[in-house]
Write a sequence for this structure.
């Protein structure tokens, strides 16, 4: 699961994110209402999305690794 770090880590900068005007306004409104920055809200939302979308992929990789453990072991010899 995505865990926020106590110290912000240097991140690549994405200079422009195109949001539909209605999404941009909703983001600004939520940021204002919660006292958080739009960037913080976006970071949290992207982290949750990656956790949710990545979970089935990680589970499939684990199933394949278990199912083919013998082959993987032989390939590593």
């Amino acid at each position: 699961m995505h865990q926020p770090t106590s110290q912000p880590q240097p991140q690549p900068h994405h200079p422009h994110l195109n949001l539909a005007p209605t999404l941009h306004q909703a983001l600004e409104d939520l940021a204002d209402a919660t006292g958080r920055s739009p960037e913080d809200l976006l970071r949290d939302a992207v982290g949750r999305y990656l956790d949710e979308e990545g979970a089935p992929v990680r589970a499939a990789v684990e199933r394949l690794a278990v199912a083919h453990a013998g082959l993987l072991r032989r390939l590593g010899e």
Q: What stands out?
A: The chain has three helices and no strands.
